[in-house]
Structure formats: structure tokens, C-alpha cells
Design a protein that fits this description.
- The chain is mostly helical.
- About 60% of the residues lie in helices and about 5% in strands.
- The chain is built from six helices and two strands.
- Strands 1-2 form a two-stranded antiparallel ribbon.
- The longest helix is centred in the C-terminal third of the chain and has 15 residues, at about 85-100.
- The radius of gyration is 15 Å and the shape is elongated.
- Mean pLDDT is about 80; it is low at about 1-25.
Length: about 100
Amino acid sequence: MGANQTLTLFFVCSTPHGVSAAQARRTAMKPLGQLIKEELAAQERSVSWFARKLNIDRSNVYRLFQKNSIDTLLLARICRVLGKNFFEILSGEFDRVHNSRQ
């Protein structure tokens, strides 16, 4: 994977056979930016703190919260700053979706 490649692991898969679109939406993983936002809140950290740790502007943090996919290098930095492995979460979601299609 190249240095500037973006991780887009989820929501590319179609709805599994026999599962309604409404059921798929209820079980679909939250967007990655939303997971990061929730983790930041769970740790009771501010957006300003997070922006300083990532060396980015606060406005970019708010944009990050809206994203479904994030550059892998940035995601690695986020994992380090928050002490949470989002790659593992994404991998688990990918496995869940993949296994439900078989």
C-alpha cells in the first residue's frame, strides 16, 4: 500500500442476499470519522487537544469526523494519539461483512 493511499475498507460491499436494505443499514458500521469522534469523547479529550497532537487545524478535525475513509498514515497517527487500534476495528467489520455474504 502506497504512502498516500486511502483506506476504504467498508461500505463497498453490496447488501448480502436475503438481507433488506433497512437491516443492512441498522447493522452497518458507523463511519470511521464518527468512531474517532466517539473515542475522543469517551476519553474526555477536546478537539483542540486532538488537533495539537495531530499537528492539524481544529477545522480539519471537524472535517475528519465527517469522513468515511481516512488516509492510512493519518489513521495510524490517530491510533497512536488515542491509543486505539482502528485498523483492528475495520478489519473486524470487513470480516463480519465478508462472512455474512458467504
